[in-house]
Amino acid sequence: MIVSTLGIWRLERDQKLSLIESGWFTVVTMTTVGYGDISPKTDGGKLFTAVVPMIGGIGFMAYLLSVIATTIIERELKTVSGLSEVKRSGHILILNCPNEEKVHAIIDELRVDNKSQEVAIVLIADDFDTCPDQLMKRKNFFFVKGNPLLLRTLDRANASQASQAVLLAKDPKSGYTDGLTTQVALSLNALQKTAGSNIYIVAEVVNRDSIGPLQVAGVNDIVCLEDMIPPILVQSLLDPGIPDVLIHLSSKLQGQQLYVTSIPAEAMGTYGDFLKRVPVVQTTKVICVGVLRDGAPIINPPDTLQLELSDKLVYIAEKRLTEYEFFG
After folding, report:
1. Percentage with pLDDT > 70 across the chain
2. By the 8 A CB rule, do 122 and 157 touch?
C-alpha cells in the first residue's frame, strides 16, 4: 500500500494528486471497489497500477483474507472439538456427560439462580468427538474434550482456577462408575493442592459404599442415588404428592426453592430469638426450615437451640436473598 501510494503520487504528478488521494486510489483498487473517481492517465501509471496494486495488492488482500478465514475456522473447529484452552477463572466445571439432557438440566438450574446465572460453565468429557450444537449454543459455555482423570485435560479447562465442580456418574448402570468418579475426585484434589486453590466439589454416586472414599478424596457434597430414591418412593406410597413437593423445592425452575445462608455474629442467640429479630421472616417473605451444623441438617429445631457461628440457615424463598436483604 505504501509503495503503491508513493508510486501513483510520483507517476501521476501531472494530475497533482495529494498523498491522501493516492492512498485512496490504492485502497479502492486493492479492494476491487474501483470507484473511478481517480484513474492513471500516463502509460507508466497504468503499467504500475496493473502490476503493484492490482496483481500484487489484490493478490495480497486475497491471501490475507484467506489467512483470516482459515484462522477463524480453525479456532471454531478447535472450540467445538474441545481442543481449545479455557482462559476463564471462577468457573463451574461439569465432569463427564452421561447424557446431554442431564447436562442441559444442570445448566438450566444454574442459569436461573442469581448466584450462578453469569458464571462460565465448562464441560469436560470424552463421550463425543465434537460438542453437540445445542450445548455449544448455551450462553457462556465451554467444552474441553478429554479424560477428566488426566491433569493435562484439567489444565486445558483451567480447573485450578474453577470455583465449583460437579462430578457426574459416567455410566450409572456400570458397577465401576463410582470408582471412576473417585479417581476424578482424587485428580481434582491433587490439582488443588498443587495450585493452592479451593474448589467446592459435588459428586453423584450410585452406591452408598462409595461415599466414604469420595469424602477421603476431598468431595464436599455427595448425592447418592441409592440413598435418595427409596425414601422418595416410600413417601409417594404413604404421603401421595410429597415427591412433587420435594422436586418443587429442589428445582430452581419451579418458583420456591431451598437456600442456605450464613448467620452473622450479631444474630447469635437462640433459634427462637433469631426468628423474632429477623424482619424478613416476620413479613413471611421466607420460611426458615432449620440450620446446617457441621454439614448435618437440624430441621425445625426447638426455639431453645443455641446458634453457633459455624451454623448456616436453611430457608425457603422465591429467590436467593443477599445478606443485606435477609438481615438488613
Report:
1. 99
2. yes
